[in-house]
Amino acid sequence: MHEPWIAWLYQYVIGGALFLLTLFMLFRVGAVHWDNLKSRWLVVTMTAGLLVFAALHAIWIFLAGN
């Protein structure tokens, strides 16, 4: 495994875990409600943004290695 992939894994595994922990805490304290359309939109777009950014970053690393 090459060094960029280790950094990618670290960034998105640790960062993803912190992201999920933060979302869990926001739901737990009541700052975000799934019933509220704006809150749901925020959670979905932030999660999709993280996943899209991680995928684009992975593609970038893959293309840079070839």
Brief overview:
The protein is mainly α and 66 residues long. The protein has one domain.
The number of strands is: 0
What count of structural domains? 1
**SSE-based structural type:** mainly alpha
Order of helices and strands: HH
> Which geometry do the CA atoms define?
elongated
Query: Quick check: average pLDDT?
Result: 93
Largest sheet: none
CA(first)-CA(last) distance: 14 Å
Radius of gyration: 15 Å
Percentage of β-strand residues = under 5%
Q: How many helices in DSSP terms?
A: 2
Low-confidence stretches: none
Write the layout of secondary structure elements.
Layout: H1 3-29, H2 37-65
Walkthrough of the structure:
The protein has one domain (about 5-65). The protein is about 85% helix and about 0% strand. It is built from two helices and no strands. Helix 1 (about 5-30) runs antiparallel to helix 2 (about 35-65). The model has no long low-confidence stretch (mean pLDDT about 95).
Offer a few descriptive terms.
66 residues, mainly alpha, 2 helices
